[in-house]
Structure formats: C-alpha cells, structure tokens
Amino acid sequence: MRNPAIAHQEKLVEVQQLKKYFPVKGGILRRQIGHVKAVDDVSFHIYKGETLGIVGESGSGKSTLGRVMLRLLEPTEGNVIFEGQNISTLTQRELRPVRRSMQIVFQDPFASLNSKMSVGELIEEPLIVQTNLSKRKRKEQAAALLEKVGLQADDRHKYPHEFSGGQRQRISIARALVLNPAFVICDEPVSALDVSIQAQVLNLMKDLQDDYRLTYLFISHDLSVVKHISDRVAVMYLGKIAEIAPKHALYTNPHHPYTKKLLSSIPTIHTNSDKNTVPKQPVMHQDIPNPANPPSGCVFRTRCPLAHDRCSIEQPTYTEIGPDHYVACHLYDKGGDTSHTS
C-alpha cells in the first residue's frame, strides 16, 4: 500500500514518455552514425511530499534522467509536467521563474561548489539571481539556513575547502533550499561520504522534508540508502524503468528478475545454520549492454536467466500487479509465460 501520508495527495511531477538520446559520431567527417539511448521512453509520477527513489547499476541512466527533468539537459522527446505545467516546451526565459521551485543536490559537493566563493556568497547567489532581496536580508537567510543544516552562522565567511565532505554537502543542501523549492532532485548525495556521515545527512534531509514540505527524487545505486529514505522506488535498467512500487512491496515482494537480482546483491551476514535456508538467486550473466546498441525486445533479456523467445521480439509493457506496483516483464503481462515466476 502507498504511504498513508501521501495516499490522497496530488501529483507534483509527471514524466511522460521521456527520452534522451546522445548522438554517436564516427568517421573522418564525424558524421552521426547512431545514438546512445540514455533515457528511453520513461514514464512515472511523483506525489507531493513523497520521496521517489531511483536505483540501478552505473550506466542505467539515473543521473541523466534527473538532469533532463530539470532541463539541465534538453529532452529528445517526451514531457515533464510540473505543478500542472509542461516545462518541456518552455523557452529559457519562461523556464527561469520555474527553476525557483526545482533544485538539485549533486553527488560531489566539492565539484559543485565554486572554490573561489565564500559559503555565504554561494548560498546568496540564487537569491541575487531570482529575487530582489536586500543585501542584509540575503545574509540573514544564508545564516539561518546554515544553522538549519547543522553548521554555524559564522561559517558563511569560510570557503568550501575549509570543510569536511559531509559539511560541504550540508552547504550544498542549504544552497538548494535557499529559494524554498517544492521539488529537489538528489543525485547520489551521500555516496561520497563515510557511512556514519551518510546517516546524519539522510536524517537531516528527512527533517528538512518535513519542515519545508519538500518532494524528493532520490537517485542512488545503494539499495539500503534508498530503502531508508524513500516512499516508493523505481528500478532503472538501460534507460528504462523495469519496476516501480511502494517501498515495502518492492523490497518484500519484487517481481522483475532484475529487481530480484539487485536485492539479492545487498550484503548480508549468515551463520552456518542459515546457509541451507537462504534461497539462491539466479546468476545475472554478462555486463550491462551498450546503450548505443541495446538488445531487441526486452533490454534485460541478454542477462536474464528466465528469458524466453518472446523476450527477444517484443518489448514488454507495464502491468499493474498491486496498488501502485508496476512491472515491465513478459512473465506478468497478458499472454506472458508465467511458468518461471516461482
């Protein structure tokens, strides 16, 4: 079942058949010879006040998806509906006021923060660009936000290199929140941090979500982190969504073979008495295929131990197998071979 806190709320973001293809050029004349299908026909929605987690292997298109949603990269096709408005068709001038409500926290805070600017200048910069606040008001807001994320107001006079990795990520979070956005994309925000610091930053983000009524898209390859912070989880593979479901349903009853394999890869400790009771998962063969030349039919078929003839011919469509639980697999759609689902 969906989280009761968001069960009756409206959609804040809706992604409709979104695609992002990067051109591949070759030859002496550098002519276009193909495309890298980084995001390929992706559709989903995010409810107001929830956290949707996106998980998948490196190269699955998670970060590209987040950037296309914010139009940091222009989409090849498809639409992104934010608060009822199609932002995919807006000009850059029309998009500018919308950007106040949509922000991003990047993976590497040291790379995303200008080392030549003080922390105060970094946090105040969005206010200079997007508002007409006085210099005094901007400084007050920057100081208040620094304290809100667990730093000191006087830290605004320091520079990013004077802080630890966890503190720099707190600064990045403060900078993302200074315009009071409704939607924040978190692109692997804790993957570069120590485990103990990860927990602190994740708990901070959850507290800030309650205080500021934020909606998150949380991108990560760490299934444990996603489980901790998300309400629903989408599993992405080679530019497509394989399965999307409420957190509890996905972690306790996964359906897509790729989801099952990902969950089985979470490290666990078993005693000798457990060895004979732990179910063995099928082995996932080969590396992730080249997105410039994805497999025909189901893109996961070349690594799936349950693939059958239909998988190489026909691309699976989404089948609802529970409340808000969708899976793209021929084992579950109409006419699919379900003899291997046990």
- Overall mean pLDDT score? 89
Task: Tell me the span between the first and last alpha carbons.
Answer: 23 Å
Shape: globular
What is the radius of gyration? 22 Å
Helix and strand topology:
Layout: E1 11-26, E2 31-47, E3 51-55, H1 62-69, E4 77-82, E5 85-86, H2 92-95, E6 102-105, H3 109-112, H4 119-130, H5 135-148, H6 165-177, E7 183-187, H7 195-212, E8 215-219, H8 223-229, E9 232-237, E10 240-246, H9 247-252, H10 257-264, E11 318-322, E12 325-328
Parallel strand pairs: 3-8, 3-9, 6-7, 7-8
Antiparallel strand pairs: 1-2, 1-4, 4-5, 9-10, 10-12, 11-12
Could you characterize what this model shows?
This protein is α/β, with parallel strands linked by helices and 342 residues long. Helices cover 27% and strands 24% of the residues. It contains ten helices and twelve strands. The chain has an eight-stranded mixed beta sheet with strand order 6-7-8-3-9-10-12-11, sandwiched between helices. A four-stranded antiparallel beta sheet has the order 2-1-4-5. Strand 11 (318-322) and strand 12 form a beta hairpin. Helix 4 (119-130) crosses helix 5 (135-148), helix 4 runs parallel beside helix 6 and helix 5 (135-148) crosses helix 6. The radius of gyration is 22 Å and the shape is globular. The two termini are 23 Å apart.
